[in-house]
Amino acid sequence: MQKKTPTGTVLYTIEQAIKEYRKICQKNIQKVVNDITVDQCLVLIILNDNAGIPQIEIAKLIFKDNASITRIIELMVQKDYLTREVDASDKRKSKLLLTEKGQKTIVLLTPVFKLNRETALSGLTLDEITLLDKLLHKIISNCKTS
Fold first, then answer.
1. How far apart are CA 37 and CA 30, in angstroms?
2. Can you say whether the dihedral through the CA atoms of 61, 49, 52, 47 is positive or negative?
3. Contact of 49 with 43, CB cutoff 8 Å
4. Which secondary-structure segment (H or E) carries 82?
5. What string of DSSP letters covers 49-63?
6. Tens-digit pLDDT profile for the chain (146 aa)?
């Protein structure tokens, strides 16, 4: 028989799965690049795939508030993963760009990201992964419409 979670709900188990996944991701990232966090990696990936994306959009994609994403980005600029370039059309805005170090870090960590996903999903069939994704999207939708 399955052990009851403290809250008695599958939602607690989802939260626990996320936390465990983030821990293994951080552990594996640290083996390759020792001064970067999971959230900072996510920022690198987003900027690498979406050049010029606004900071507010990055915040939404990694589920952070504006203050948190500002701190994350400031640390990344200090560590030379990113630079800020003033927007020519609107001087109040700045564009975030990957530095050479940021680009090299993406290359170094790409196999780690793949390993993390493979580890987390190990033993699940494609059908199970598809069903899990469908069910989680249903939960997300339920929460957004309430």
1. 8
2. positive
3. no
4. strand 82-86
5. HSTT--HHHHHHHTT
6. 556 656 678 999 999 999 999 999 999 999 999 999 999 999 999 999 998 899 999 999 999 999 999 999 999 999 999 999 887 777 777 889 999 999 999 999 999 999 999 999 999 999 999 999 999 999 999 998 86
